[in-house]
Amino acid sequence: MLDGVLLVAGFALLVAGALVFTNAVEWAGIRLDLGHGAVGSVLAAVATAMPESLVPIVAIVRGEQGGPIAIGAIIGAPFLLGTLAMALCGAAAMFYRVRRKGSGLRLDRQAMSRDLLVFLGTLSIAIVIGNVRSRPLHVIGAVLLVAAYGAYLATTIARARRQGGDEETPGPLYFSRDKDAPPRTYQILAQTVAGVALLVGGAELFVTVIERLAHALGINPLVLTLLVAPLATELPEKINSVLWIRQGKDTLALGNITGAMVFQSMLPVAVGMAFTDWHLAAPARVAACAALGGAILAVIAVRRTGRFSGPFIGCWAGLYAGTIASIIVLI
After folding, report:
1. Per-residue pLDDT averaged across 238-267, rounded?
2. Can you tell me the distance from the alpha carbon of 76 to that of 284, in angstroms, rounded to the nearest whole number?
3. Burial of 271 by CB count in 10 Å (0-12 exposed, 13-18 middle, 19+ buried)?
4. In degrees, to the nearest 5, what angle opens at C-alpha 53 toward C-alphas 52 and 58?
5. Does the reported pTM lie above 0.85?
6. The pLDDT of residue 155
7. For the chain, where are the alpha helices, taking DSSP H only?
């Protein structure tokens, strides 16, 4: 009973930290004159990915069962993004088709295709390396992924600045007293620190509870984290994409998801390669392959039709549910 309460408390801290941190980072991007396009496609995606990124870092620092927990959290995020998150966006477009005057999605096909292809390449490399027990190869892979993400960021920010963007200004900074005036730098910094503190506290609590539950239930902590962590760290934030689709902001909604997919397949994976044994057990391989399958479906939908129709939604939902069932069978 106590573990359940603590797990919910950890979820609450992670979600609260994500909201506070994301709001601060978006204002920081505007203060640095990165442009609304870069704020939406890069900073928002990175900021909302912080909860699931801190869980493996905290797990690694704690040691003990940290390796399996870290790998479960790292693989679980792209698995949910490439399956359930895509299905939710497609379902939202169909559900709100009267308000939106159609279920078609207004997408930046070039940007989405690029993100999805980058994700397919980097996650495939991560899976291959995860089946090779070579420490030097893991370190080389980690360095290359960090360098690749740096290049991706530079390219995306430059492209966003050239194109501009019509995304709205973020909501008022939570730490600003005057909601009608732009926040000051010290307020943005203070809120950023507070957001990180909430995220670290939530991640610490989450890892502690997962370790205890895995021991009590006799379940591999990797499996428990793989199934539970994404629901707490990814899904709440991706509800924003559903709301943006309702408002007709399709590029922002899908860019938030594909940007997070690129981030999750690079930096967290690099951390896993560098600081764990990065050996992918069968449940992790199944989830990673499901994420690849979901991304392939998304590429087809974006390039051919520009809409997430019923068959695609069904396939994504089936991939998610089927993977969960397969993992349960495996354990």
Report:
1. 82
2. 8
3. buried
4. 100
5. no
6. 83
7. 2-31, 36-38, 44-48, 50-62, 66-80, 86-95, 97-100, 109-129, 135-163, 185-217, 221-233, 235-246, 250-264, 267-275, 282-300, 310-330
Structure confidence at residue 249 (pLDDT): 77
d(CA 121, CA 193): 34
Q: How far apart are CA 74 and CA 53, in angstroms?
A: 7
Q: Which residue has the tokens 């996650």?
A: 123
What are residue 30's phi and psi, to 5 degrees?
-70, -40
CA distance 25 to 47: 7
| Number of neighbours of residue 98 by Cβ within 10 angstroms | 8
What tens digit of pLDDT does each residue of 31-70 get? Answer: 776 655 555 556 666 666 677 778 888 888 877 566 888 8
Q: How far apart are CA 135 and CA 161, in angstroms?
A: 39
3-class DSSP assignment, residue 65: coil
219-221-226-228 Cα dihedral, nearest 10 degrees: 80
**Structure token digits, residue 41:** 């496609």
Q: Which residues of 115-144 are buried (b: 16+ CB within 10 A; e: fewer)?
A: bbebbbebbebbbebbeeeeeeebeebbee
Q: How confident is the model at residue 141 (pLDDT cuts 50, 70, 90)?
A: very high
Give the pLDDT confidence of 199-238 residue by residue, as tens digits. Answer: 888 888 888 888 788 888 788 888 888 888 887 777 766 7
DSSP state letters, 114-181: HHHHHHHHHHHHHHHHTT---HHHHHHHHHHHHHHHHHHHHHHHHHHHHH---PPPPPPPTT-S-TTS
- pLDDT band, residue 102 (cuts 50/70/90): low
